[in-house]
Design brief:
The chain has 374 residues and is α+β, with helices and mostly antiparallel strands. It has nine helices and 20 strands. Helices cover 26% and strands 29% of the residues. Strand 10 and strand 11 form a beta hairpin.
Length: 374
């Protein structure tokens, strides 16, 4: 069996599978490792995917925009497009919040945005009487992605052109003279670079206090009619994701946090009741809305809302790609492209371009000064 690679990516969730596929496409010798099955952990396994480009944080916009950064859409962008249903995404928010979104995108981005003075333009006025004074902003290019389908196709691509090892948990990684040893049971692999894309818990040290595990509760509801597109209700801090004509998914807010994923309480708690109250406030009659199932997923979160992408120190050959706050699926194509560009350049001994460095600076793990050593 082959044991030496250019890059080993640990974790075959939506982020790890995307990074591995982009690295393979760039010509690097790659191994993708997963402790279970592809897409079988955390947010990729359970949660629905609302893909939207609008972000109030300017640092996140290069990760959520749909365009490529380095002149090629690539395999990851192509496979995400296949799994994406462009329904549009509706934002129900105050005029102030809508104004901030419009300011954030500038004049170039407004061509794909509709702004309405009331929410009556959405689904024949269904939400209008319950959202008095709220505006409606529709991002036409947005939609829904089936992350599990995308991950399955990405892992198939990696398996065909490189190495994919599932059901193999990594125990530890050891840096030795510009190489990294990856120990998994009795197996020892070696790579020039290792990327930890394990979400809430991984084998690499993370900056102390920078990333924590947090639950992502949600309830699937049967209803008289699901919305025609995903709805983000800012005043309620929730979303409605249509899964069918009479089925939708709604996020709950009773969350738990812990240092590691295995420490989380994954019981539904009172999230089902919380969700029912939220949809009632959005106009769904309790007599015609029935909870089908409440589930709890998890992912890695950061207190500043920005992921960790890069090395903790300038000399390390260990990369982190974590802390995507449950929405990594909408950032995965661009993160994968950016990391493939960077690691390919490092393998070739090239210096990174100023534009690339400026994008990645906001996500550098070294912004958290204290680093855990174990």
């Amino acid at each position: 069996m082959k044991t030496s690679f250019d890059v080993i990516v640990i974790g075959a969730g939506v982020m790890g599978a995307s990074i591995a596929a982009a690295l393979v496409e760039s010509g690097l010798d790659v191994a993708l490792m997963e402790k279970g099955i592809a897409g079988g952990q955390g947010a990729t396994r359970d949660t629905g995917g609302i893909v939207r480009g609008l972000e109030l944080d300017p640092a996140l916009r290069p990760l959520t925009s749909r365009g490529a950064h380095h002149g090629s859409t690539g395999i990851v962008h192509a496979l995400f497009e296949q799994a994406l249903k462009r329904t549009g995404v509706a934002y129900i928010a105050s005029s102030e919040v809508c104004g901030k979104y419009l300011e954030a995108v500038g004049t170039e981005g407004t061509e794909n945005i509709e702004l309405h003075a009331s929410v009556g333009a959405l689904d024949n006025g269904r939400f209008s009487s319950f959202c008095d004074g709220e505006c409606l902003l529709i991002e036409r290019n947005g939609g829904m992605v089936d992350a599990r389908v995308a991950v399955s196709n990405l892992c198939r691509y990696v398996a065909e052109k490189a190495t994919f090892l599932d059901h193999l948990a990594v125990d530890r990684c050891v840096e030795l003279d510009g190489k990294v040893q990856v120990h998994a049971g009795k197996l020892c692999l070696e790579a020039t670079w290792v990327v930890d894309a394990c979400g809430a818990s991984g084998p690499l040290p993370r900056p102390y206090g920078a990333v924590h595990a947090r639950t992502i509760p949600f309830t699937r509801l049967s209803c008289d009619q699901a919305p025609s597109m995903p709805v983000i209700a800012h005043s309620l801090n929730t979303y409605l994701l249509p899964l069918g004509r009479n089925l939708m998914q709604v996020g709950g807010q009773r969350r738990q946090r812990a240092e590691h994923a295995y420490q989380l309480n994954l019981s539904p708690m009172d999230n089902e009741q919380d969700v029912m109250e939220r949809v009632a406030r959005l106009g769904y009659d309790r007599d015609h809305t029935l909870p089908v199932v409440t589930q709890v997923a998890w992912d890695a979160y950061t207190d500043d809302g920005r992921p960790l992408i890069g090395r903790s120190t300038n000399k390390s050959h260990l990369y982190l790609a974590t802390g995507f706050c449950g929405i990594g699926f909408k950032m995965a194509p661009n993160v994968a492209e950016l990391l493939a560009f960077e690691l390919g350049g490092r393998m070739a001994g090239m210096q990174m371009e100023a534009d690339h460095r400026s994008i990645m600076e906001a996500f550098c793990p070294s912004r958290f000064t204290e680093v855990a050593l174990s």
